[in-house]
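thread: overnight batch results

M.L. [08:02]
morning all. the overnight job finished for the chain we discussed friday. pasting input first so we're all looking at the same thing
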Amino acid sequence: MSASIINAYTVILIFAIGYLAKRFRFVEIDTARKLSFIVMYVTLPCAILSGSAGSIDLELNLFLILPLAFLISFGFPFLGYLIFHKEPNKCVYAMLNLGGFNIGNFVLPFMQSVLTTKSFIALCLFDVINAFFCFGGVYCMALWFNRKGFKTKDTINVKKILIELSKSITSYCCIISITLSAFSISIDETILHPLKVIGGANTFLCMFIVGVALNFEISLSKVSAILQMLFLRYGFATVCAVLLWFTLPFDSSVKLVLVVIVFAPITSFAPITAIRSLPQFAEDSANLNMISVMTSVVIITLINTLSSCFM
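M.L. [08:03]
and the structure it wrote out:
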């Protein structure tokens, strides 16, 4: 059985464990929220720092991923603005839910067993820019583009954006990992081993939290709006994936991880920002986030299964 199929049914199994644990009241949603802090500030940073350990010479052409990641991360929410700019409230909602990729809590755990060292560095480079958009960039962008029609108490300026970005410990860990590789610095085994052990729990905790948060009670009236957003998100992802695969000067392992990233689920931070700025859309955002995760599991599994035909 291929590694991608094994990854897929492992992810679904952990989803099921989390969902059933909630259904049988072994855990509550509150537990998942508390566990998410462990993921964000403990297991995810350890998984990132233990991933490269300075074991390769960082190729300069990989830095092309930084401006590329900026264009892609900017393009997804901007698509929402182009389509819905005449309806400021809906436009903000669309931009928040089209922007950002769930890399640390989804792509990394899902792909961890098949990532090469070079493709891991590519993932980190992309995630440095992605974190900027996830942790405030898309939110500030949505409010700025709709400032004439959407009313908010938040003041959007450079200081606000920098404050939002500074909250991302994931960004710092990605930068440290990239720097280690750039200077061929290896982490001592006495430090690396505990990082690997702690980081090894990241996959289970990430998927378990998603399973606990799953809610299949979606009214029919909401289905049309969710399908519209999914079509926009994954339709644009398909265009980006084709361009990435056929135009980039990287080896196939790097291009594969970039293609997987654009098909990653909507960032789990989107429902939080929706609650903050558009409480009337909070439930829609949470449901969309859940279906996005399930959609990405199917698409990424297919990509991994078929990738051997192109590599």
